[in-house]
Amino acid sequence: DEWRYAFEEALNEVQGVYATKFKEYIEENSDHTVTLFPFGTLGESADIMEQAQAGILQFVDQSPGFTGALIPEAQVFFVPYLLPQDETKLFEFFRTSKAINEMFPELYAQQGLELLTMFPEGEVCLTTQEPVKSPADLNEVKFRVMTNPLLVEAYAAWGATPTPLPWGEVYGALQTGIIQGQENPGFFLESTKMYEVTNVITCLGHNNFTTAMMANKDFFDGLGAEDQELVQAATQSAFDYILDYQKGLQAESLEKIKEAKPDMQINILSEEERKPFMEAAAEVEKEFIGMTGDGGKAILDQMKADLAAVD
Ligand code: 6CS
Fold it and tell me: Is residue 74 part of a domain?
């Protein structure tokens, strides 16, 4: 069979590298073929998710940043400072987390989706026109966020004016001054040339970009046991590959940006400078529980337990 798989990035970006590995594994180990649809070929994130739910696509990668309306609990990934930046701990968390591997699959299933895996894509840093040393520097800054209510709350708590936009509009909006900042992991800042339309990169360790890869549930349930195992093995193989691929990627990407634009400022905030950003996180966590109730709190508590277990 021909299986169709869409994702939110270009072929040579992290989701594309993951998808390429997945495709290779399936095609080497079966007679199925996987056709890849990178960002832009079938629309924005919201569009590819609709197509996956409708069964037009068999596989889709959509980040929790766009899944807020569908699965509010997935917004937990935007509680600032919840995930560690230490790669070893972070990767171990993704491998072993009960919240990710046992609780989230049930929530995705209710939306007609078989959650196959979640994986990190790198530390998220801010790009802005002016330096950001404290939340006061974000005051009145129209800051683009993914279309996710909790991310809006997080940037509002830091004093910015959050502006949710789909990805396709971000470069142009920065260029024309409709927005003055956005956040993304290092590799993406480099590959999408965010440095051409902003002056300063600020890393404050508040998040690691998480994404989710899934199948249409009716399609997956309809596969024979052998094909289900094949899909799971391909998922695992690509997961192992993508964690390895990312080692050192953040630092390399920031280096490449420096080479491409030597006067780009890159500021890594100190522990002291991070404090006021961290303090606001408690408020965002409360908002998360307010939005998602007992179900969300159970996920948050489990994530904290999973994180404590890898600490
Ligand atoms: O900021 C965004 O919207 C995009 N960022 C990444 C790293 N991947 C896809 C997503 O659309």
Answer: yes
**Encoding tokens for residue 297?**
């709190």
Percent of residues, the chain, with pLDDT higher than 90: 100
Residues of the chain below pLDDT 50: none
Residue 28: what pLDDT?
98
pLDDT in tens, 29-60: 999 999 999 999 999 999 999 999 999 999 99
If you take atom 9 of ligand 1, which residue's CA is the nearest one?
Answer: 8
CB of 167 sitting under 6 A from ligand 1:
yes
What pLDDT is recorded for position 290?
Answer: 98
Q: How far is the CA of 292 from the centre of ligand 1 (A)?
A: 24
Boundaries of domain holding 231: 2-281
Ligand 1 center–CA 162 separation, angstroms: 16
Q: What separation in Å is there between the alpha carbon of 72 and the centre of ligand 1?
A: 18
- The domain that holds 64 is classified in CATH as 3.40.190.170
Q: Is residue 253 part of a domain?
A: yes
Tokens of 38: 């990178």
Q: Do the domain assignments include residue 298?
A: no
Q: Is 209 in the pocket of ligand 1 (CB under 6 A)?
A: yes
Of 219, 207, 209, 212, the closest CA to residue 239 belongs to: 212
How many domains are contained in the chain? 1
Residue 307 inside a domain? The answer is no
Distance CA 69, CA 76 (A): 13
- SS3 of residue 2 by DSSP: strand
Q: Please give the Cα distance from 81 to 183 (Å, whole number).
A: 15
Task: Tell me the pLDDT tens digit for each residue of 212-264.
Answer: 999 999 999 999 999 999 999 999 999 999 999 999 999 999 999 999 999 99
